[in-house]
Known about the structure:
Blueprint: H1 45-53, E1 58-61, E2 70-73, H2 81-91
Antiparallel strand pairs: 1-2
Amino acid sequence: MAPVAILQSTMSTTPTHTVYKPSQTWRPTEILNAPKRQSFAFDSMEDALAAFAAGEFLVVMDDENRENEGDLIISASQCTTEKMAWMIKHTR
């Protein structure tokens, strides 16, 4: 097997992670003028994926024929200290 060369120019010297700033307090997203639902309905996959990409929590449901429970998930790359604290506080 031939050795692999890593080019110095392809390596980034700037950090790629978000820096935590204590002055930023996370709050759940408030949707203004949301339509009133008349019955229970799941959100579309497009809406769920957009919310996940934006760093919002999702409730992923099991099948009704199984435990019929929900799991709260969030993108690890979008999770902040405040979001983790909120999750721990409201899911224990």
